[in-house]
Protein: Methylglyoxal synthase
Organism: Macellibacteroides fermentans
Amino acid sequence: MKKQLTIALVAHDNRKADMVEWAVHNADMLSIHKLVCTGTTGSLIRKAFQEKGIEADITCMNSGPLGGDAEIAAMVVRKEVNLAIFLIDDLNAQPHEADIQMLLRQCRVHNVPIACNRYSADLMITSTLWDNEDYVPTEPKYIYFKR
Ligand SMILES: O=C(CO)COP(=O)(O)O
């Protein structure tokens, strides 16, 4: 991929091992992009990359429950994120469910691709559309019905 992207990486505690393994597996690709992460996810990825001598541009926001999802959602609103990978723990409740839903919703509203499992993430990061100058993503057309 030639285009440099800003990629958001977020994982709940029970999915962090998955996220770190995925990030290390895709380190060659990820290291050419800017990574923005919630606090703990980012520090674990940074540590794993350092242990393997992988250099990467990683920005850590606050931890998720302390506003990290909200900060990344704000970046999505400002069109500062090209792609989000969000490994959600769907088997346990989170104290900051409202923030999680906000991040997911803002990605949908602003047409930002968001992968919530590794398979989707693999498909998204290998897409040739990123470098296709002729491809313009179609923005959602919201139609307001008067009731
Ligand atoms: O809670 C999270 C996402 O909702 C993740 O936050 P941390 O990466 O700080 O654990």
The pocket of 1,3-dihydroxyacetonephosphate is lined by residues 10, 12, 38-41, 63-65, 68-69, 100 (CB under 6 Å). The radius of gyration is 15 Å.
